[in-house]
Structures are given as structure tokens and as C-alpha cells.
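Handoff note, outgoing to incoming analyst
You'll be picking up this chain. Sequence as last confirmed:
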Amino acid sequence: SEIKGDQVRPHYDDARAVFNAMGDRLGGLAAALKAQGLQASGPVFARYHSFDPAGDTDVEHGVPVAGTAVSAGQVSAGELPSGDAVSVWHFGDHTTLGQTYGKMGAKVQESGRVPAGPPWEEYHWIDLNRFDTDAAWWGENNASTWRVRLVQPLK
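Most recent structure output, in case you need it:
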């Protein structure tokens, strides 16, 4: 089971503002976990239903949990799709994340299959179980430690 916040549509014109908005969303998820007595059992994810760097982006944030999550307030229980997917890893800050998405697109083409819904990013440098510390959010404030797995489900 997973718990996720309502979808938000931030305007992606300022990278720091994007991270701050994400921090607000993850703070809400961390509070919901605590209120339900749950622990994150995997990495925080962001699933992009649409992405427009010059305009609005439709993104949901969530995290897998150990136990059964229930919807409450602005947080809902749900699941990411299961099944076949391609994935690639990105290491370091996000300035070259677009290139990593290009590598994932190439892997989709090589598979001879087509995407089945929107991709998501798993942030393996964020520990939602200790989200109340800056280190949990910013990966000890060292972008060289950031690890992101990009996942694209396939038909």
C-alpha cells in the first residue's frame, strides 16, 4: 500500500521554489504517516501526469508504507502500477536529469513496447521516516549523494 498527497500543479520556473513545494508536500505525507502509526517502506516518489517546464505541471508525491494506509484529509491511499517497466538511475543534482529521461526513452524504444501511463521518479536520498531534519530532506545538503530511479511502466 502507498500513501500519497493530492496532486499539485506547481509552476516550474524556479528550481528552489519547486523543491520547497515538494518539501511542503512531503511534510504533509510525513505527518500523515505519523498520525496513522505507519513507516515508509521505500523511497519517496513523484509521479508526473504532465510536465511543462514553462507552465503548469501535474505531479503527485507519495511513498510506499508498511501496513495499511487510509485516506484522510489531503492524503489518499493508493498504489503505483505493477507490471513490466524500464528504469534508469540518475546520480547527483538534477541539472542533467533530462538527459537521464532521454536514456529511459531510448530503453523504451529498444524494448519495442510503449509507455503505460506516466513515469515516476523515486528519490532514494530522502528518508521520510526522519523527515523532520534538514538532512533527511536535502541528503546532508550534498547533491552528489542524490540517487533517483526513473521508472516508466510498459504496455
